[in-house]
Amino acid sequence: MHGGQTRNLVLATIAFTVTFWAWNLIAPLSGTYSELLRLSPTQTSMLVAIPVLVGSLGRIPVGVLTDRLGGRLMFAVICFVTIVPVLFVGWSDTYGALLFWGFLLGVGGTSFAVGIPFVNAWYEPARRGFATGVFGAGMGGTALSAFFTPRLVETLGRGPTHLLMAALLAVMGVVMLLAGRNSPTWTPSAEPALPRMRDAMRVTATWQCAFLYAVAFGGFVAFSTYLPTLLRNVYHLSQTEAGLRAAGFSLAAVIARPLGGTLSDRVGPVRVLVASLAGTLVLAVVLALKPPLEVPAGAAFVAMAFFLGLGAGGVFALVARLVEASRVGTVTGLVGAAGGLGGYFPPLVMGAVYTVTGAYTIGFLLLALTALAALLYTLKAFRPGKGSE
Length: 389
Fold this sequence. Notes:
mainly alpha; 389 residues
């Protein structure tokens, strides 16, 4: 279609990966912070979840700004702005300071609302599921963080590790400015922000996709951030061992997301979502029984990540089919915010459940019920012939 498609998709995916790594800097070190500051399970959950809040809600204005300013500039801005909280998280030694800078660290998570409209504009409708799926694989930044952050901290120390991340963000921002390009088909939106958001919220597909993304991507975010804590509490793993398994979880979702987008182009996003939600439902019930590590628990977590990744890829293939191109940025912001918020509350619920019961059974059963509700809704709302197949 256009020269530069592949280059800009690759650049966007790398930028998304780097900013998502930065967004997830606190979770892999939750054990260190818990011991250093003597935190309760609820306090640890709050610390892990707080970056998710801004990374979610911030997607709404960022999506609107992307429609107006373009993805190339917005990617660079987010890289540069995220440097500040990354540095201060690395230098903070009190719970209050970590909460404050962790809150601002959420800016890194807003990059998702930049990339979806950016890559959407580069690809024709029949290949947008593939394009958004490949871009979405950048959520593997959480896997890189889970695997490398604890090891880098052990080797270099916390401050130098965060300094290294800040340098990576600076380089990525400059590369995006110099090498990135907006699609020739993209035109800046001149409409005021509030009417655009109001119009997007009147579109039924916005709410439908927001709900489904809150379950699929929210489930992924919740597990990728809280899994190290959960594995330490239930299976008494070391921080590095828990991080390795959390990285495996994220990696499975990263592989599945482009597959979900590509399958959606071929068989329709609704079928992909039905398979995703059914798989999530079954595996949540399995995990509620607290199976032994590694099999079946480890296998169940990886399979869960795979099904959640498929669903996340399916949702944005559905957005590409149901929403006109000029509104994709604004709708993506709203849907992305719902996905992030879907990942904000489960760690808090899991922490509270563990504090009260000493187990995570109720938390997993709540996930199973949520997946069931989403599955029934998908089957009802997108019956054959409604145009989304």
